[in-house]
Amino acid sequence: MLERQKFSDSVAQQRAWVEIDHKALAHNIRALKSLLAPTTELLAVVKANAYGHGVIEVTKTVLENGATWLAIATLGEGIEIREAGITAPILVLGATNTAAELEAIAHWDLQPTLCTLEQQKLFQETMKKLGKTLPVHLEIDTGMSRLGTRWEGAVEFVEAVHTSENLEIASIYSHFATADEVDLTMTHLQHERFKTTLTEIGKLGIPLPKLHLCNSAGTMLGQEFHYDMVRPGIAIYGCYPAPHMENVVALKPVMQVKARITQVKTLPPDTGVSYGHRFVTSQKTKIAVVGIGYADGIPRCLSNNLKVFVNGQLAPQLGSVTMDQIMLDVSHIENVQAGDIVTLIGKEGGDRLTVDQWANQLGTISYEILCGFKPRLPRIHL
Predict the structure, then answer these.
(1) What is the dihedral sign for C-alpha 330, 331, 334, 338?
(2) What is the dotted CATH code of the domain comprising 23-236?
(3) Cα dist. 259→10, 14, 312 in Å?
(4) Is 275 a catalytic residue?
(5) Confidence (pTM)
(6) Among 137, 167, 221, 356, which has the minimal tally of Cβ within 10 Å of its Cβ?
(7) According to the model, what pLDDT value does residue 9 have?
(8) Are 173 and 213 contacting, i.e. CB atoms less than 8 angstroms apart?
């Protein structure tokens, strides 16, 4: 009862907020785990504030439900997790290029990605000065063309790290570029390059460490690609990497976005609404002003194309999305008043408004929408 009261009190104080469903989050981790062999670990990608969901609370739930590793992009993200008392192993996916960063990584018991021979020299020199041995994860570029040593030079790279006195190879990994495409030609080519690299490393007598290759899409392709660990991100939060993967595993959306109506008024015909008057009423129109805008993460490009739930019914947004407010046409909805809750992302009855719908309208991906909801929207954890 106390938990429910806290939730009610926190919502009552808000003009707009994001709700995070931890039952759905736990379900998604267990569902993804069901795709894996018993020996394959699940590394939960919680970078970018857990894709906008709230990193500390999300991290606790994913670890409680079967994740054994975490991945973040920046040093600061890792420190935030450690300061919260979370002790699970953390892989830093981003590049590390200064001694100061390395010293902080070692201090906070983080494990960095090592991408190049130049970095190997910096890592070794820094750890030798500190008198420490640092676990490192070697990224091989098999076709993503982002971080990592290209596969053609990977054997020399791995050998150099293997012979470094103060570095310990914790894993070797690569990253799929097109695993969410229907055409898997490039995915199979990347996999072959990865396997060839591992074979060549084995010929040198270097023992293979933990191996991993799969993002969310790769995880859904099957155990052939899983190796010792998978690294799902978007799927943890209940979104599919691509529509054709929706029948692979049942995921539940974790995030809902809600706001309050702040004023209701009736406008006469031929009245412009919002900046630029990009919508003009054609008849008497009852509008509701809602306390959320592009400063909260509602893309302005959705102006005049957004629909939301008001009292269980869909209401179109009118005119330009403004920094802090949007306007809705609620002429067809009875008993709308200030204080009513509007659902922008989420479920009401049997219908759902999704981040994928927004992404499709904008020509982008669900990842960008989720990460776009700003910090001034409090995360309410259910």
Answers:
(1) positive
(2) 3.20.20.10
(3) 13, 8, 14
(4) yes
(5) 0.95
(6) 356
(7) 60
(8) yes
